[in-house]
Amino acid sequence: MLRRARIRRVRGGTIRIDLPDHERELLQRVLPQLRELLTADESDERTRRLFPVAFPDDTEAEGEYQRYMHSELVTSRLSALDAVESTVTAKELTEEQAVAWMQSINSVRLVLGSLLDVSEELELDNLPADHPQIETYALYAYLSMLLGELVDALSR
After folding, report:
1. pTM above 0.90?
2. Which residue from 67, 104, 106, 146 has the least number of CB within 10 angstroms?
3. What's the rounded Cα separation, in Å, for the pair 133 and 127?
4. What integer pLDDT is reported at residue 117 of this predicted model?
5. Each residue of 34-68: pLDDT tens digit?
6. Do residues 49 and 113 make contact, with C-beta atoms less than 8 angstroms apart?
């Protein structure tokens, strides 16, 4: 039996979001935490993947790049958060709103990836159930799945 996609493009080009309330509530809890990180101290290690190094071999160029781009990236991410927070209970999204969802969900994933030191070698299925950070890994996996669903819907 084929299962209907929870996130899918529908007639007219809008994106239908069929998420249960508990998943929407989870997003409502984690997104404000991302906002706090974005508006806090720039040197917070948890946000390192949100602001990647552009010039690893040139500290002067890197400093200039970060001075110029950091505020642009923060503004863009805060704007995306605003869009998600205002549509988190919506059943349908415009393509622009769905892109904002993708941006925000990926930003949370990047922060979690920094906290957990996620690498390409990570096999989430191999983590023991009693791992001290299993819930954080589960959140990372859930957000990865949700991001994949959004990408699939937008690419159709």
Report:
1. no
2. 67
3. 10
4. 82
5. 999 998 876 788 888 888 889 999 999 998 998 88
6. yes
The SS3 of residue 104 is helix
Measured between alpha carbons, how far is 38 from 25 in angstroms, rounded to an integer?
21
| Bridge partners of residue 9, in order along the sequence | 15
Output the pLDDT for position 139: 94
Place of tokens 């404000």: 32
User: Where do we find the tokens 């791992």?
Assistant: 131
* Residue of 115, 41, 39, 52 lying closest to 82 (CA atoms): 39
Instruction: With beta carbons less than 8 A apart as the criterion, state whether 14 and 92 touch.
Output: yes
pLDDT of residue 1 exceeding 60, the answer is: no
Residue given tokens 């906002």 in the structure block = 35
